[in-house]
Specification:
mainly beta, Methylamine Dehydrogenase, Chain H, six-stranded mixed sheet
């Protein structure tokens, strides 16, 4: 049975994905200070890559090398209205960003931080905290695709309340937030769009099935006075938001838009600040490689100093097939794109970052596709990546590349007929989970970059879709067994013989956790022995054959599960729900605004967050303290 919860989530997350899939660029809505100063016109050489000598060369390349096609209705404006035709693959945009945490515990006022992959590289999320205030991107109408309110909430136990609300307006979606290290600046990143259905009036044109325009905004608010946020900077870029990171005071964002020829014209990416005229990226600044593909995109890398409004943003644009996954170290941004060419291959693009400097340095290619950011890692001057290869069968591989993106080591043909469900690189080891019927948990010895090898393997029921480090010798796995959520604790002290020393099953006819797909919903703190994940539990019930209406009885519960976790295993301490009716709730009668999607702690208080409210509970006893309505 398809869960109503899943359908409802799909209506939101799916809408965001569909927007980027069918959007294929168009009208630009403008805001942001002076036109952006683009990088120098001379671009450094990159092996296998070059830049166009002119606009005409770029246009001819697209016309010659694009397999698919875009069709424009003859009555429409030249560069504004585009139809998505069969054969054009959609742009891929990640589902809305989110929060989780494992954080510091250095003082009485310790607080958790976003669950990030690389120390020092922050990731955008819908919740941030500085230990005194909580910043939440929320949508109070779950039936809408807009996530367009940002709340600043005082976290004081004696008087928790909303101190400010930033309303971004309709047709906007907040992908995530960043908070400066001194808590003086709040960065809001998201998309602004307009979507028209086939039966709705649209400006000057009728296109089936949809018409849409999209751009990406990066707004910086001065929140020195929390009750009075002031817009300090507003950068707008044509195209769809892909991903972002923050290192120090710099936010780095990646935006993609289709590269196409319409009526003999190519629309190049644009950058806006305030309502000034756009700065257009020139053809001579676009990197590309000689290739033929179903479609191409202009993928732009932006670097923005969020503390210095006078420093202009920097950018690099690469024409590639698309974007599928991103990994960021302290020094490099890696963006991957998967394509099919007698089997599936992944192109990897490396852009070096150093403050305001962005430098495109290398491109490489490996067999297979990359699952997500956790399938990639940079370590001791090498880039490691795990892929699943698909052709006549499936098999899984680990590759080691140098900084030129040339292959120096590989481990291939793992778990034939299965695919990677989760991966995690931790120092000189890698952990992979593949799945078909059982959960092979592989420990990969990465000490020799030229010769990675399988050190140990464990087969257990189910699978893990997220792996999280517990300590040097233990890994937490979050996944599914049959139709229920499963937590596993793997002991890898003996790398040649890993064991599952503990497991916990969230019982129910069907159970789910948002953290399965979104690790930022995963809150873990080893020192506090704390693990919190959002959980939903569905009981289908039975058909009442004696009833005239043959109604179905059942139940639904959603909230945060709070665990004590040690090397001995998982102990459920309790659950916290935001639902107002917990006794007769049915999965047919769910208030999705009340579904908990994040948790964090400040000192000895646990805060759970939904679209509707923030609840405060004692971290010691889980006793309720207070709640704050978001409205």
């Amino acid at each position: 049975m398809v869960q109503k919860e899943v359908k409802k989530k799909t209506s939101i997350y799916g809408t965001v994905a569909v927007l980027s899939a069918i959007v294929l660029v168009t009208l630009i809505y403008v805001y942001g200070t002076v036109p952006a100063v683009l990088p120098p016109t001379e671009t450094p050489p990159v092996a296998g890559m070059k830049t166009f000598s002119s606009y005409e060369e770029l246009k001819n390349f697209l016309a010659t090398n694009t397999k698919g096609g875009y069709t424009v209705y003859s009555g429409g404006p030249l560069d504004a209205h585009v139809m998505w035709t069969k054969g054009i693959a959609p742009l891929l945009t990640p589902a809305p960003a989110s929060v989780g945490n494992y954080g510091s515990d250095n003082a009485a006022e310790s607080y958790s931080t976003t669950n990030i992959q690389v120390a020092g590289v922050d990731e955008a999320d819908i919740v941030k905290t500085d230990g005194k205030y909580i910043y939440v991107a929320s949508n109070n109408d779950f039936n809408s695709a807009s996530q367009n309110n940002v709340y600043i909430v005082k976290a004081d136990l004696q008087d928790p309340h909303v101190v400010a609300k930033i309303a971004l307006g309709n047709e906007t979606y907040v992908a995530g937030l960043f908070l400066s290290q001194d808590s003086s600046k709040l960065v809001v990143i998201g998309s602004q769009y307009q979507l028209y259905a086939a039966n709705e009036p649209r400006p000057e044109i009728a296109i089936y099935p949809y018409f849409s325009s999209v751009n990406t905004f990066i707004t910086v608010y001065d929140i020195s006075e929390k009750a009075m946020p002031v817009l300090a900077r507003n950068l707008t870029l044509s195209g769809s938001y892909f991903n972002s990171r923050m290192i120090g005071n710099y936010v780095y964002a990646v935006i993609s838009e289709p590269a196409y020829v319409i009526q003999d014209v190519v629309t190049l990416p644009k950058v806006y600040q305030n309502e000034a005229k756009a700065s257009q990226i020139t053809a001579e600044q676009v990197y590309y490689a000689e290739s033929v593909d179903n479609y191409f995109t202009f993928t732009t890398f932006i670097g923005l100093n969020i503390l210095d409004n006078t420093q202009q943003p920097t950018n690099i644009t690469v024409m590639m097939g698309g974007t599928s996954a991103m990994y960021v170290s302290m020094d490099n941004i890696y963006v991957t794109y998967s394509t099919w060419n007698d089997g599936q291959y992944t192109s990897i693009y490396r852009v070096r970052v150093d403050g305001s400097e962005l430098k495109f340095e290398a491109k490489g290619s490996i067999p297979g596709y990359v699952l997500n950011q956790y399938s990639m890692d940079e370590y001791n001057g090498y880039f490691r990546v795990a892929t699943t290869w698909e052709k006549t069968t499936q098999m899984n591989n680990v590759y080691v590349l140098n900084m030129n993106m040339s292959q120096v080591g590989k481990l291939e043909n793992l778990a034939e007929g299965e695919r990677i469900y989760s991966a995690r690189f931790m120092g000189d080891k890698a952990y992979l989970v593949t799945f078909r019927q059982t959960d092979p948990f592989f420990v990969i010895d990465m000490r020799n970059p030229a010769n990675p090898r399988v050190a140990g393997e464990l087969k257990i029921p189910g699978y893990s879709s997220y792996l999280h480090p517990f300590d040097e010798n233990h890994v937490i796995g979050l996944g599914m067994e049959n139709s229920t959520v499963k937590l596993s604790l793997f002991d890898v002290t003996n790398v040649n013989a890993p064991t599952e020393t503990a497991r916990y099953i969230v019982e129910g006819d069907w159970t789910y956790s948002q953290a399965l797909d979104d690790p930022k919903a995963f809150l873990f703190d080893k020192q506090k022995e704390l693990l919190v994940i959002p959980v939903s539990i569905t009981q289908y019930g039975v058909v009442d054959s004696t009833s005239k209406d043959a109604s179905i009885s059942g139940g639904f519960w959603q909230g945060a599960y709070v665990f004590k976790v040690t090397t001995s295993g998982f102990t459920l301490r309790g659950g916290i729900t935001h639902a107002e009716n917990t006794t007769s709730a049915s999965y047919y009668e769910v208030n999705y605004n009340q579904q908990v999607n994040r948790a964090l702690y400040i000192s000895n208080t646990l805060y759970t967050i939904s679209n509707a409210k923030i609840k405060l509970n004692s971290l010691t006893s889980l006793a309720p303290i207070a709640e704050v309505n978001l409205k």
